[in-house]
Amino acid sequence: MTNAHVIVGAGLGGAKAAQTLREEGFTGPVVLIGDEHERPYERPPLSKGYLLGKDEREKIYVHTPHWYAEHDVDLRLGTRVTAVDPAAHQVTMADGSVLAYAKLLLTTGSTPRPLAVPGAELAGVHYLRQAHESDRLKDAFQPGARIVVIGAGRIGLETAAAAVSAGARVTVLEAAELPLLRVLGREVARIFADLHRARGVDLRTSARIAELTGNARTVDAVLLADGTRIPADAVVVGVGISPNTDLATVAGLAVDNGIVTDEHLRASAVDVYAAGDVANAYHPFLGRHIRVEHWANALNRPQAAARAMLGQEVSYDRLPYFYTDQYDLGMEYTGYVEPDGYDQVVFRGDRASGEFVAFWLAGGRVLAGMNVNVWDVTEPIQKLIRSREIVDPARLADPLAPLESLSNSAG
Ligand SMILES: Cc1cc2nc3c(=O)[nH]c(=O)nc-3n(C[C@H](O)[C@H](O)[C@H](O)COP(=O)(O)OP(=O)(O)OC[C@H]3O[C@@H](n4cnc5c(N)ncnc54)[C@H](O)[C@@H]3O)c2cc1C
């Protein structure tokens, strides 16, 4: 019998869970296993400050190199877990070695979806998930270089902004009618289209990619279904991510758009937990399972999972939160809305000024809020959402009406 707590996936989530186990006083073995060769790091800078050359490499890491030994965390890098056996309470590594666990946390994250067109395997076609891929992009983003970004989601748009800042000539190709359409809806997505076009990005929406063409095995153009050829020195693909659920599936855990967990972050096998990008967890406030691919979720939810592993009463109900920085636009988004789940968008402040808050409402209730270049409002926005009260849209739109005063229970 072991009392080892084993964490598979050494990203932000895994590192925070290990830290919490120690902070909460667990004295048994903690093993943190990751298949990357870098110690755990944060990914947001890879498409922002680090890619722009503003942040030092050291700034991306979750802990110092010594932290793991100092806290008696057995960090095993470059190590892939190939199987989980929930009945035997053990995991198997790629070299065949076996490790027994008392409690297991899966924080295996996600992987960029591959572009499924001919030529996608050519040199010069980039994805962005790992630190070394950000280094390669930095090299490709030269003044005058022709960069084609496929996918106008957050990663695609942030990458486009970094390429523009480096002096590259940037084309962004998006299958939908607008960038970020599914997440933000038409009213707000337009703002991001205008932002990039104003910076000289050639944003082409409703674009269908037919093929990537190459010259001596290196990409030289993107061919669209309508016959348009867009010359490219490098292509960046950002067409979404898939949760890394293979281990869980083979282990027989319930998997449905991620590893299914309850609100206590427990997966469907005893003593197995999941958190971060890979988990599709029941959210008590929203009353449904959601899988969240955001930094704040990878920061906080694995800490909750670690406490649950220690037998503490945990019910995770933080509202989803994410942020993005593109050029001089910084935004935070709090809440959750299905693509067709709102009937009104209310703007507070002047959109043209670049400083405003957008609210998504259904039946007069605020479901989500996004503050753009306006800061320190996340808490009142969360309170408005949590109050579930019907608010007066005119007051919501009025920057002089304190957000704290808009619902009876808020503030
Ligand atoms: C470029 C970029 C920019 C981003 N910017 C933002 C942002 O601005 N705002 C925001 O909210 N979010 C952002 N995100 C999202 C955020 O970084 C993720 O939500 C977060 O990294 C998820 O953390 P995680 O620990 O769940 O998974 P990951 O960070 O994916 O870590 C999982 C780790 O597990 C490893 N692993 C997987 N399977 C195995 C296995 N079988 N054995 C061993 N190891 C395994 C993986 O290789 C990986 O190292 C960004 C992501 C990227 C890539």
Automatic annotation (TrEMBL):
Q: Where is the FAD/NAD(P)-binding domain?
A: 5-299
Claim: Flavoprotein is one of the keywords in the record: yes
Keyword RNA-binding assigned to the entry: answer is no
What GO molecular function terms would the record report? Answer: dioxygenase activity; oxidoreductase activity, acting on NAD(P)H
Q: Which cofactor does it need?
A: FAD
Mind listing the UniProt keywords for this protein, alphabetically? Dioxygenase, FAD, Flavoprotein, Oxidoreductase
* GO CC annotations, alphabetized: cytoplasm
Q: Which SUPFAM superfamilies match?
A: FAD/NAD(P)-binding domain, FAD/NAD-linked reductases, dimerisation (C-terminal) domain
InterPro entries recorded for this chain? FAD-oxidoreductase/Apoptosis, FAD/NAD-bd_sf, FAD/NAD-binding_dom, FAD/NAD-linked_Rdtase_dimer_sf, Reductase_C
Q: Where is the Reductase C-terminal domain?
A: 321-406
The entry's protein name is: 3-phenylpropionate/trans-cinnamate dioxygenase ferredoxin reductase subunit
